[in-house]
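Let us begin with a simple case.
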Amino acid sequence: MTRRLTTNDRVLGTGLMLILGGAAGNLTDRLLHGYVIDFVDVYYRAWHWPAFNVADSAITVGAVLLALDALGWGRKNRH
């Protein structure tokens, strides 16, 4: 069964695009370099957040958007 997204499925579509784009970016790094390049490294005094890249951020935001869509956030009421 095939399902197409409608213009009302913007949150779902955006989430899927971010996840696929992030996965493609990480896959490209892995194929070209043999590892994923992490370049965002955040420090605050003695506290250190794990290093990450833009692709990881896109995957995370996309997953949050998919979860919000599953909860009904961003949908217009259909009567």
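The second case is a distinct protein. As before, the sequence precedes its structure tokens.
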Amino acid sequence: MPRGNKVSFSGKIGKTIKDSRPSWPEQPVPPVGAPNILVVLFDDVGFSDFGCYGSPIRTPAIDRLAAQGLRYSGFHTTAMCSTTRAALLTGRNHHSVGVGCLANFDCGYPGYRGKIAREAGTLAEMLRPHGYRNYMVGKWHVTPLTESGATGPFDGWPLGRGFDRFYGFLDAETDQYSPELVLDNTNIDPPGSFETGYHLTEDLVDQSIRFIADHTANRAEAPWLLWLAFGACHAPHQAPANLIRHYDSEFAHGWDVERERRMARQKMLGIVPPRTRLPPRNDGVLPWDDHSAGERRLFARLQGAYAAMLDHTDHHIARLIDFLDRAHLQDNTIVIVMSDNGASQEGGPLGQVNAMGPYNFRPESIEEKLSRIDDIGGPDTHSNFPVGWAMASNTPLRRYKQNTHGGGIRDPFVISWPNGIPARGEIRDQFVHATDLVPTLLDVIGIQSPKVVGGYIQQPIEGVSFAPSFTNPKAPSRAKPQYFEMFGHRGLWQNGWKAVSYHPPGTAFEDDVWELYHLDRDFSETNDLAASEPKRLKRMIDSWWAEAERNKVLPLDDRFGSRFTENAARFHGSRRHFVFHAGMGHVPTDVAPDVRSRSYTITAYVDILDRRTEGVLISHGDATSGYSLYIRDGLLVHDLNIGGEHQILRSDRSVPIGESQLSVRVRRPTRKPTPLARGIGLSGYGATIPKEVLDGRGVSSYGLLINGIPCGELETNLSFITLISWSGLDIGRDRGSPVSDYKAPFEFTGKLLKVVVTMDDDQVLDGESVGLAEMARQ
């Protein structure tokens, strides 16, 4: 028989209570004066987007925190969301903990597992033995998405990594009106809808307040960590319509003027040095005045949706801070507000109203976008702004998220701690990296990082505390170098200098051109000293390779699509048959059957009770893209929704009363399509799809069957080539944003026994095109 762990007992057990002495295990005792910690993490917000960093976007709550604390102008991230989160949570470099790129795939190499190694404990795991309670709210995205289903495994979910409660979402993004929510380890429905006034940002703050209120009621003496990671301002940019329209006039002058205005404000605020120069426009960004009047009107509205989303989130941050103040918690709470990387380039040169269509060869013309301009930011849109506005967001820095130039890795960072930071409204210009957050917090709390967590010997903390700069504006920056790498883009900071290389996808790494900047004198990376300082540059490149080897960065890999396609193929393996029984929960997209670019059959086994029986049998996706098989008005209906264009097929006869098998049979395109990525390029998100690419789509056929007998067929050049949707699959209902024109959840009113999905072995996925689509959601 296996023996349990021996429990230490220091009392005495006699024959009776009279000759016995009780004892109790010692409980963790927090360090004296241990502060609470509130981390507010934005997504894809650029360096200049907070009002206190030069933006005209209204962020009074963040500005107020900055006025009672510090702003850092030299805070650096890792250029992507999963990777920065891994570094922030662990105090180690993202490659060295196994999250070299995204949580969406495991490349088979130690630095690219997509999951934080157990040898790298999280901040929550480090604080728990010292009496902290830990709460995670919002975006996680450091669990492989193939592990995000109902069976887990859950060891990489927040509750498996030291958090006591979790309310949020696991993926890179989610719809703000119909999010794919998780409570602790269980998928749940959102508590409201667009029609009832629901928005995820408000919900996340409500839950944050509840967690802290519950904590205060039960364990007021214990300190807490609340990690609040908003979906804002990642696409889809969704916010109240009146707030979006408010910003129309604010940005009508365009991105060229906006950059000039922001940098002028930054110089006035002291965020950038007076000598800072504005770089030329990023590659591929046209002058604002070169666009038509219609395009400028559209682009201003898309930027307005982004600005409104940030403004709206700041409003709810104010609610949370006000609650801390009412509860007398603010003075001893460290409040940090930051972004995970620079502004996103995924909106492409022309922006997007519904990103789903173009990635499935369904173009979105400027005329169509303009016809839907008043829908932008609403529940049936997946909008993103053009790269020109992302460039303005990153003022005065070059390039964007994904890149290792300043626009990708230099971000706003605000910290307030009335009891511990005496400075009010000051700016610090020290170099700080995401890995430095954990050692800084441990430093000010007065605890050491543990040597063992959960039985795993811990790898060293790689970040460096910047706590001395809280009280000393002249405190030196860290002495150790910091490398950067993302999709082959590389960089190294060392002693105020930076070597950086932009890597064009698909080219030889040895052909990359390295640049050299003295950041202490050249904030915006405009004076390349590579030619005049070749020896220094060589030393820094050599140092980069040494850091890369030490931190598991190698092998370098610039593949976009093949990483995603290989991961999907490995996860599903040879499985072609899925059985979904009635009563099951929501299935995330990365776990659902992969029906992209292949033939398949879906069969629902039902018992029709009467002629009024109706509802969804299976649905995958949302209003922006997806498919649904349902019964309405006695007919079997299949809706193929590609980017909001619906191909609806209805049966030519009624579904009979009683037990039936109701099927849709899909035949993939008759020829392999011209790859989308080769038509518009991996950096051309949102660009017009060339005619030769559209002509190469091929034809798909869709047929309905009732008890095996055909009852309707159509042919279409629309089909799921690269993705279905970023929303998951439901059985017997359509949980959230509806795929078709019914009112969700449109639950099936008959008896649904099961739904079976059988896929043919004819899938033909082009890695470049899949990568283009998948990168749009990161």
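The radius of gyration is 27 Å. The longest strand covers residues 645-654.
Keep these points in mind for the review questions at the end of the chapter.
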